[in-house]
């Protein structure tokens, strides 16, 4: 390679866009979206920025963070709390986020049962004694199906002008590609994992040999393991301190499901009633048509994407009351999906929505509407 070119590259300030930290987190997010783990633990989670990004991945139901420094976690942990919108529109999935204060050199049962464990720019912060214990804790004890480890690639360092030693004053070491890969391959071999290497932060054109700025190992467990057997076979005492826990509102929780079903039932019944009343008006003074009072359910189906309507289940008016059979309401996709069965629907709205005496229809008083007519 041209010597001048190399010099030019070396003195130019290397800036990554998006930032290297964002690229590392995006790498994890892409992996989560590909493999859809339900339970993810981030070790050395620092300011919780990766956890915050991952809380939006709809496959994740359990997120945990661990750091030896409580104050760095506490700084932004409030960003992991549910927002008002989460309560207004609870999600179908459940989500619990927990933060623990402790060291990756120690085993704690709260770290069992995870599908994915991420260690982003963590290992280079570990003292030698901690680094020695780390594989046994993560691969032997936690034993998730996947582990992602990222660490600086020291071969890239000469491309940073002015960098004399390590990239961060707290780093205990920075490995070149061969050092990281031999450690990772040996760890994988010991604990029956496979490992593949990749990275983020491309070197400049012509300097490809130095490799990625951040080197990444993706480890996959070779043997199957069930959550339950992990918990029971590995009794250990709790050593971490839980510093934060947020349980997100979810439709899996009966109390949020009930609220959502009641709102949806009333909303659906109101729409049907509105259509019914419009039809009623259209029938005008024709007593024959008005007494039958059968709106076009096909039209309703078209408008609202309803599933099926049995011919004998139609809304009707009697005196000042309009009756919308629950069977019709249940046939609307959103209500149907929320409740699963008509029995469940009846159970969830019992005592909360005004029903006909036999409990088979939602009842509205239309005195007011009649007065307007
Ligand atoms: N993962 C973060 C940043 C990592 S910086 C990110 O992606 O942005 C390394 C973090 O590891 C620091 O927050 C540090 O407090 C934590 N750490 C260092 N030693 C540790 C140990 N033994 N156990 C757990 N966390 C540790």
What labels would you give this structure?
40% helix, 2 domains, 373 residues, 11 strands, alpha/beta, Rossmann fold, three-stranded antiparallel beta sheet, eight-stranded mixed beta sheet, binds S-adenosyl-L-homocysteine, disordered N terminus
Characterise the protein shown here.
It catalyses: small RNA 3'-end nucleotide + S-adenosyl-L-methionine = small RNA 3'-end 2'-O-methylnucleotide + S-adenosyl-L-homocysteine + H(+). It comes from Climacteris rufus. It is an enzyme of class 2 (transferase). This protein has 373 residues and is α/β, with parallel strands linked by helices. It has 2 domains: 20-226 and 234-248, 3-Layer(aba) Sandwich (Rossmann fold), CATH 3.40.50.150; 253-280 and 313-372, no CATH class. It has helices at residues 3-11, 20-35, 49-54, 70-76, 84-88, 128-142, 177-190, 227-233, 254-282, 287-292, 297-304, 326-330, 333-339, 342-349, 367-372, and strands at residues 39-43, 62-67, 96-101, 116-120, 146-152, 193-200, 214-221, 241-247, 316-318, 321-325, 361-365. An 8-stranded mixed beta sheet has the order 6-7-5-4-1-2-3-8, sandwiched between helices. Helix 9 (254-282) runs antiparallel to helix 13 (333-339). The chain is elongated. Mean pLDDT is 88; it is low at 1-11, 290-299 and 301-311. The site of S-adenosyl-L-homocysteine (SAH) has 22 residues, from helix 2, helix 3 and strand 2. S-adenosyl-L-homocysteine (SAH) binds next to helix 2, helix 3 and strand 2.
